[in-house]
Design goal:
single chain, 250 residues, mainly alpha, two-stranded antiparallel ribbon, 8 helices, 2 strands, 4% strand
């Protein structure tokens, strides 16, 4: 449950900033990172986001879990670019059956994509670390994101915890019955676990639909009402974006 916990999102000044302001800043920074032609700005943003995560005391385990998937994608993209895209060979290894060739320009291209991925993911991660999920959804609704999309996100977020709890109960029951002692039994147990969760998710969706209709659900979920914008927050955000714009021009 620690991965989805929001206890570390409420004890610092960044958590009190309007979610709409943080969304605007994040969008602006994402545009800069994705449009930058070199390594400097994406790596700068990744370093700043890492420093901010340390300041707000994001748990190390949560940080590593959030970045594990992007790191795997970065490794795959860099490897593909290095070995299969390029014209300037860096080395060539003959294995008789086939030849492995690494390309210098392919490696640079892969590292550039990797820098952009890390920079962009860091911005989105910090936005998630500093903003409660309900505030984020309310901010998206203010930007006129389709209500159906927001409602699906809210229901999915709600039932992540329900399904995760069911998964842990089934997993511990299987483990106590030696369901993961061998690879074969482990795969079989995992298949049973997956099938059970799919059935439970389907049953939960039906029961939730019936319960919401009986309570007068008309297709709209109530969201938080926003206060007027804080002028100081807007000024600080504009100054920060201007400073990042200067760095982007370098």
């Amino acid at each position: 449950m620690e991965l989805f916990s929001e206890h570390f999102k409420k004890d610092h000044v960044f958590a009190r900033i309007d979610a709409r302001v943080k969304l605007l800043v994040a969008i602006g920074l994402l545009i800069m990172v994705l449009s930058y032609k070199g390594f400097f700005f994406p790596l700068l943003m990744a370093a700043l986001c890492l420093l901010l995560c340390i300041v707000i005391r994001v748990p190390v385990r949560v940080f590593l879990l959030r970045f594990s998937e992007p790191f795997f994608i970065v490794l795959m993209v860099t490897a593909i670019k290095f070995f299969f895209a390029g014209r300037d060979p860096l080395f060539s290894l003959d294995l008789h059956v086939f030849t492995i060739t690494g390309y210098r320009d392919g490696l640079l291209s892969g590292l550039l994509i990797a820098a952009r991925i890390f920079g962009a993911v860091s911005i989105v991660a910090v936005l998630g670390f500093t903003t409660a999920f309900t505030d984020l959804m309310a901010g998206l609704s203010w930007f006129r994101v389709p209500k159906g999309f927001i409602e699906i996100l809210m229901l999915a977020y709600r039932y992540i915890f329900v399904i995760l709890e069911d998964a842990l109960v089934i997993y511990h029951a299987q483990k106590n019955r030696l369901g993961y002692t061998t690879i074969k039994r482990g795969l079989s147990s995992f298949g049973t676990l997956t099938g059970s969760l799919i059935l439970k998710a389907f049953e939960s969706s039906q029961s939730t639909t019936v319960a919401m209709v009986q309570r007068g659900y008309d297709g709209n979920l109530p969201l938080l009402q926003h206060k007027p914008f804080n002028i100081s927050e807007i000024l600080c955000s504009v100054l920060f974006l201007l400073a990042m714009g200067v760095a982007w021009k370098i």
